[in-house]
Every structure is written in C-alpha cells, then in structure tokens.
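#struct-help
A.M.: can someone run this one for me? Single chain, 205 residues.
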Amino acid sequence: MPEKVTHVEGRGTPLDADDVDTDQIIPAQFLKVTEKQGLSKYLFYRWRYDDAGELTGDFVLDRPENAGTTVLIAGRNFGIGSSRENAVWALLDAGIRCVVASSFGDIFYNNAAKNGLLCVKLPDKALNEIRFSIQAGWSLVRVDLGEQTLTHGGKKLRFEIEPHIKERLMSGMDDIELTTSKYLPQIEKYEESMAAYLKPRRQSA
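D.P.: on it. Structure tokens below:
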C-alpha cells in the first residue's frame, strides 16, 4: 500500500532535459527485476554508468551537493514512452518523492499516483525560476498537497491537480481500497443478489 502524501519537503535538484522517457528512467533490460527495493541502482542507468558498468559520478543526482534529493525538477514531457511501473519504483527507491515538470506522460502520471509519487505540473517559466533559485543556493523545496502550493526561494506557487489524484495521494489508498470506499454498498448489494442467484433451486416434495 502506498504511503500517504500530504507534504514533501527537501532538496530540489534540476534535471535539465525534456522528453525524458521511461526507458531513460529505467532501461528495458532491468524490467525483469520485480522487487521495488534496490531499483535505484538502475535509475537513469545509461546516464550514470560507463560501458563497463561503473558509476561515473557525473550525473546530477550522483554529485555530492545533490545527495538526498527529494524533489526532482524536470522539464517537459517527463515519463513519456512505454508503460513500466518500474520507472516510478526506481525514483521512489532513490528517495525522490516529488517530480516537478510542465507535463508528464499519461501512463507514468497515473502509475505515480498509484504508488505515492507526487507529480506537480508548473509552467516552463516557473520551472526556470526554480532552477535559478536552486543554482543561487536555495535548494529547499516545500510542497503542500492540501494547499496545492510549492514554495522555493521565498516564493509560493500554486499548482493544479486532478481531485481524484489528490484524494488518492492524500489517502494512501490502493485501487481496491479506493473502489470499496466509494462503492461498498453497491458491491455488497451485487454480491447478495449473486449469492441468491447461485443458490440451487429446491425441488418441491
């Protein structure tokens, strides 16, 4: 079951790239790994490792000053491409709890909500302001999902989010819990009718 998400606060790190697809987030050869723990090793693998499989340390998330990144500041169309929930798992396993971008791939966006990864949509201009403030030393980013605000460098920005996504994140419910919370009476009524229907007919004496 995903954790409840009400606030995210921590170091923000810019990833200056648009159109980051799920294969770049976690390459296809690692999809056979079904455990969520340990997937951070393969996060952005092609950008972080050399041909011999050695970590170069040059990638933005591997730099010492960005250790403990909680909020990833991306660009446009983050998480586009094929459907792979492992991309979300790898980000969460790396300690990232929020991705900020101007747009997201639809499947990635929905997978993120199901697993407790907050995706915040802001205009390109706002993203550039956040990058500038981080470069100026304001690395702390605070996100309040209840208020739908992101605070950085003394500025507070409001973002929009779909009500059902917000509810899912703040409640920490999975698909089954979300369904039963809304439709339990209807489900029980249906099950009762099905039980009656399945009863064998009694033969009269």
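A.M.: thanks! The two ends are 53 Å apart (CA to CA).
D.P.: also worth noting: The helical segments are 22-25, 45-48, 86-93, 106-115, 124-135, 163-171, 175-198.
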